[in-house]
Automatic annotation (TrEMBL):
The keyword Transmembrane helix applies. Residues 11-68 form the Immunoglobulin V-set domain. The gene is Mpz. This is MYP0 protein. One of its GO terms (biological process) is myelination. GO terms for cellular component: plasma membrane. The keyword Manganese does not apply. Keywords: Cell membrane, Disulfide bond, Glycoprotein, Immunoglobulin domain, Membrane, Signal, Transmembrane, Transmembrane helix. InterPro entries: Ig-like_dom_sf (IPR036179), Ig-like_fold (IPR013783), Ig_V-set (IPR013106), Myelin_P0-rel (IPR000920), MYP0_C (IPR019566). It is found in: Cell membrane. The chain crosses the membrane at residues 76-105. Residues 106-137 form the Myelin protein P0 C-terminal domain. It comes from Heliornis fulica.
Length: 137
């Protein structure tokens, strides 16, 4: 589908990629990159890259697998991320409120328990004083 020879890129004018291919490589950097524009699902496949660099005519071929996916517009990702982030924030707020309410309730219970203990202690002390007064009489 593509050849590079004598310093010039040659793109085949037959095949599925004709008129959609562009040479972007740099032979001085040993870069043989190409770009295929307007990909379609039918472009999926495994392709062979075979480099012959004279005078070395024997080389090992490599394979490149091309997968074409549908590109999702960014705005859908932003909206989805916002919805998920908002839901997580709501859950975090609810959990924080539950712990705050539980903390306040337990603190109030402890305060009431201390007051009740103090009142019972006071009654016992008053009862003991009353008993000692009765014993004296």
């Amino acid at each position: 589908i593509f050849h590079y020879a004598k310093g010039q890129p040659y793109i085949d004018d037959v095949g599925t990629f004709k008129e959609r291919m562009e040479w972007v490589g740099n032979p001085h950097r040993k870069d043989g990159s190409i770009v295929i524009h307007n990909l379609d699902y039918t472009d999926n496949g495994t392709f062979t890259c075979d480099v012959k660099n004279p005078p070395d005519i024997v080389g090992k071929s490599s394979q490149v697998t091309l997968y074409v996916f549908e590109k999702v517009p960014t705005r859908y990702g932003v909206v989805l991320g916002s919805v998920i982030g908002g839901a997580l924030l709501l859950v975090a707020v609810v959990v924080a409120l539950v712990y705050l309410i539980r903390y306040c309730w337990l603190r109030r219970q402890a305060t009431l328990q201390r007051r009740l203990s103090a009142m019972e202690k006071g009654k016992l002390q008053r009862s003991a004083k009353d008993a000692s007064k009765r014993g004296r009489q």
